[in-house]
Amino acid sequence: MPSRCGDKARRRRRDRMPLMGTLYLVRHGQASFGADDYDQLSALGQRQSRRLGAYWAERSVRFDAVLTGTLRRQQQTWAGIAEGLGTEMSPLTWPGLNEYDSLAVIRTVHPHPLLKPDTPELYRHHFRLLRDGLAQWMAGTVSPKGMPSYADFVHGVTSALDHVRTQHPGGTALIVSSGGPIATAVGHVLGLSPERTIELNMRIRNSAVTEFQFNPRRHTLLTYNTLPHLDHPDQADWVTYA
């Protein structure tokens, strides 16, 4: 027969355990890469977003808090998720979750006009320049016009993580943002170098889900860049990166 002292000790240990919560970070659906106005979901991006919401609805996932940046593609992605999820929940707008200005970053290393990236080689050239500009921005050697310092950019992201951690202990929260902030969040939690963070950023897919577990002290990475809602063979061509 278990001792009463043992039961009491287990209860005390359990009571001292910090509450664990779950934070999902979602990159926006496919936007309009190469168009005059990138900050707009494509028709496919809207379908990706609705499908993610429906996937969560099928699994009875509900959120205690939702945060988005101010960009249209981020807010449109939440609107699609909300439609698929069947909720009218209003998100908390958090400007620190906005993406960096990729063209401003590229102009720091290539001040001349770029051709529209409508061929594989021009597409690769665009992202080679972006990698170079990001590395220099992170190192503090360039200051893209109209953008914060990299330290301030990181603070904008980590302040959202801190808000979830402190205001929603033990809850389930969602952040809808972009590749740069999500890679920054993962890099911050894992203590990665800027170079590794850039590589994470370059590989994140549209509507991809990253999952953190959190307690009042810290976040822990569980999954990165997953697409569980697009795992049917009929959705193979729904997987996009831009």
Side by side, the strands of the main sheet go 3-2-4-1-5-6
Task: Indicate the proportion of strand residues.
Answer: 5-15%
Report the principal-axis shape: globular
CATH architecture of the largest domain: 3-Layer(aba) Sandwich
Main sheet attributes: strand count, strand direction, barrel closure = 6 strands, mixed
Tell me roughly what share of residues is in helical segments.
40-55%
Whole-number mean pLDDT = 92
- Low-pLDDT parts are none
CATH topology assignment of the largest domain? Rossmann fold
Terminal Cα span = 61 Å
| Total beta-strand segments | 6
Oligomer: single chain
Secondary-structure element pattern, one letter each: HEHEHEHHHEHHEE
Structure in words:
- The chain has 242 residues and is an alpha/beta fold.
- It has 2 domains: 19-99 and 150-238, Rossmann fold, CATH 3.40.50; 101-146, no CATH class.
- It has 8 helices and 6 strands, in the order αβαβαβαααβααββ.
- It has helices at 4-16, 43-58, 72-85, 102-107, 120-139, 150-167, 179-190, 194-203; strands at residues 21-27, 65-68, 92-93, 172-177, 209-214, 219-226.
- Helix 3 links the parallel strand 2 (65-68) and strand 3 (92-93).
- The N and C termini lie far apart (61 Å).
